[in-house]
Amino acid sequence: MTKPILQVENVKKYFPITGGILGKKIGDMKAVDGVSFHVNEGETLGIVGESGCGKSTTGRMLLRLIEPTEGTILFDNRDLRALPKKEMRKVRRHIQMIFQDPYASLNPRHTVEKILEEPLIVHGIGNEAERKKKVSDMLEVVGLTSYHARRYPHQFSGGQRQRIGIARALMTNPKLIIADEPVSALDVSIQSQVLNLLKDLQKEFQLTYIFIAHDLGVVRHISDRVGVMYKGRMVELADAEKIYQNPLHPYTQQLLAAVPIPDPEYYQADEQAAIQFGTLPSKYVIDDSWMNIDSERDDLIEVAPGHFVACRLK
Amino acid sequence: MLTYTIRRLLMLIPVLFGMTFVVFFIIRAIPGDPAQVILGQQATKEAVAQLTEKLGLNDPWYVQFFHYVKGLLSGDLGESLRSSAPIKDEIWPYLAATLELSLVAMFIAIFIGVNAGIISAWFQNSWFDYVAMILALIGISIPVFWLGLMEQWAFSLELGWLPSTGRENVRDPVEVVTNLYLIDTLIAGRFDQFGEVIRHLILPSLALATIPMAIIARITRSSMLEVMRSDYIRTARAKGMRMFFVVYKHSLKNAVIPVLTVIGLQVGLLLGGAILTETIFGWPGIGRYIYEAIGFRDYPVIQSGILIIATIFILINLIVDLLYVAIDPRIKYN
Amino acid sequence: MSGESVLEVKNLRTSFFTDDGEVAAVDDIDFYINKGEILGVVGESGCGKSVTSLSIMGLVPSPPGKIVGGEILYKGEDLTKASEKRMRQIRGNDITMIFQEPMTSLNPLFTIGNQIMETIRLHNKWNKQQVKERAIEILQMVGLPRAEELLNEYPHQLSGGMRQRVMIAMAMVCNPQLLIADEPTTALDVTIQAQILKLMKKLNHDYQTAIMMITHDLGVVAEVCQRVVVMYAGKVVEEGDIATIYKSPKHPYTVGLIKSVPDMRKKVDRLYSIPGNVPKPGSIKEGCRFAARCEHAFDRCFTETPELYQTGEGQKVRCFLYEQQGGVSK
Q1: CATH class given for the domain over C5-94+176-326
Q2: ipTM value of the model?
């Protein structure tokens, strides 16, 4: 089970910054600045971080939807960056993506059947009858019915559309699914439905997930291991339990402290303690010592088995 | 802003050069030997050869082009074949007449068009909105020559309220200083003449303004509707601001950019489209000047006329581009 | 409760008139906000929470929207009957509002200073110097550095968190009685959200401004609110102080909602999830709006609409399961 399916080594994406009268390049915007991690077969790696931390860019680079500036991406021991375009297209059958906004990622003029069939046609899988069968099977799998196949995306609710997006990703029997904020556009009651569905599918089809999200509660729920990104770098990477129980990087600590807990007692206890000791409630203590850390020179170091931190303080 | 302005001005050089090049060749693409055409069928071979030599038509095209551009750079637009007068002296009264007419027409089109668009958007689906948009649709569809003739028939012929042709009362001519009569009459302190000039301007400027007015009204309306749905308009209302200020301060400034683009383009069309209006209303403008020059195969005049109109068009669109930057702090051209 | 309440909403019904007929986005809701308190209004998309706030502000887009019934009492004055002129005096001065999208809620073409000072001038007859001083003061109050320079800057030069601070400054500049915050931190990163929530709590504490916090995030409610109103499909389904609601939620929807949220502090293998979809506004006209998704629903739920029943100190539930416990409260 612990065989890595994907190994990412020092991947970078720099976007040029231009300026001056002639529009010359004057610098780099380091969207992703040397990220390394691996994903084991059958596990879920969560990637969390705030807007602009580079988590989505990282996800897209794995499929070469954005070309990395530097680094290696090994999928099943093949270097994806070395593959010619044609070979890369074949690999995409095994790596699929689920997006945040299901509505924007589904062609509004196509029926669900056509949307789901398309990946099969692109990769030349099955004859027409087989494809149709697969479409109706897959709709059942994600909790819709074959009756929905003739409809158009706009006739579905947000949660149903995300189910269609998931079904499309599963059509080619991929091994790895990269889910970029798959539930953040959904209502709370629908979000849990989709999270449960993703978990069920993982068991059923032995899927490997890379789950990119900003919601720390959701990421903890779904992930086996979690990587925390900040300003284009991965600052901490460990088992989900370790990250949430014992965060080591100051930024991770800060991030976790910021999440509102749906439990009023937690806050009452916190406030009472604060009154008793005459301090600010612990939640509000801002620790910004990490801001001064020169992250450029900090590489991920294994401080405990399977717990990596990029911070010299630790 | 200054860097951008300088950059845009530098960018004008190749544009103007290219435009000159195109105009230069279009004129030369007209079939027939210009010298022969100018002198007529009866002309002797010697006379034609002489004129060809005088016009420099024996030189290779790049030499001709070089001389032409060199002349332009020193402010020399060439000589009219018909009158032998320098074009730069001859063209100004015509150009001034056109500018006066176009500016008045544009003012009317912008003032009425923008306000009609704003009010239509403000009171969307009201009777005003419906009437204004139907009128705008009609305005866009009406041919200018038909509208001009109808105006003359109704307001001059039938009602006799307004003069149908010309720029001034010919029995009491304006004392010319700038050739812009509205200004000249004021310089002379002749307010009666000023009124007379306005009376002459009304019909042609209305005819000329109709299409741009309709287009401006429609684009203003749709642009305003989009802006008025935005979050910051809701914020402005939540502050307790009067709807009038919400519309004319917060919405209009945001909605104006597409409107400016259209205005820039319309000014260009106005200058070109004025030929028809000027012909109908006997307006001594540049359109008519070029039109007549075409009849006489007066190539240097045609060439210079087109060049001037095109230059004005480019300059106006440069101004529009600079206005974008002045209005919207987010637009940065770096 | 009416003695100390700053706002009381009674039987409010706001409808949108579309080609398909009347759609009641807010359908006969009652709630109140006490002076100086923070009330949470929780619900999913289409539950009517935003329409409720726009109804209070008198900013329901009309047409097609219209308040068709009920009262909105601000210190005893019915705002549904107030003139547009009176509403303009109240907006931005007595009742103010901030929105979800700080990126688009400020006018991009005017400076921060212009937009704040405009609000001050709308409600005060001060001279230029006083207006400017107050603008600087309020920017400092919401924790923005270099307040004086900020006056001349444009919204696009600020980050999302800073813009939301500017929005709060604009909303607080006239010392309002009630601040309506419609998902104020949803578009922000968690660390920024924590700062903004802290700021709102501080302002509430220091100036006794009541806050109506509209959100879908039960964590945010737990962190900042004292009482909460849960809305579903245009109706209030449960109401009470947060300790009670989180500890012993009564309405099956509230129960399901609380259980659906993944709690960061503990790992569960499987989340609870409410079956079915969030209904579109106005799509259910009869019976309990939640009946179709409810595990406990019985025949009556589909035909008859339950009242809000009082089930204990400060808790009301719109569910037949609790009819016996408390009797009807209205």
Answers
A1: alpha beta
A2: 0.86
